[in-house]
Amino acid sequence: MVNWPSGVVLAPFRPDDASEALRVLIDAYHDGYAGEFEGGDDWYATVSADDEWDPALVLLARDVETQRIVGVCYGWTSAFLKDVCVARVARGQGLGEALVLALAERFRERGFGAMDLKVLPGNAPARGLYRKIGFRDA
Hints:
By secondary structure, the chain is α+β, with helices and mostly antiparallel strands. It has a single domain (8-132), classed as Gcn5-related N-acetyltransferase (GNAT) (Aminopeptidase, 3-Layer(aba) Sandwich), CATH 3.40.630. It has four helices and five strands, in the order E-H-H-E-E-E-H-E-H.
């Protein structure tokens, strides 16, 4: 079971959420741990054209009060975690963990027993999160 931080709810992705989701992705990459955000302004057009894209695997965390997107997590249909990003204003509340665990649940529902991901060696915050929830180095 996923524990969502107070004041945040899981929301489905709709194409009209793409620009706001992109804002969260770009903002999160500015911390420098994950390198440069590769999606650019055409992020949605690029990812949605990928054979492994499924909008049901795009999880959005919305602030209940403002309805703004404060977290984005999405994966490929091969049970690969592509990205998880939390807006700076919403960090430190367990939102990244909740998003990753919710995506893992989606993959389990599809019959997968594991989820893969890649993380840069210098991305200590992400590595700590993944280690905390049970990921192991391959």
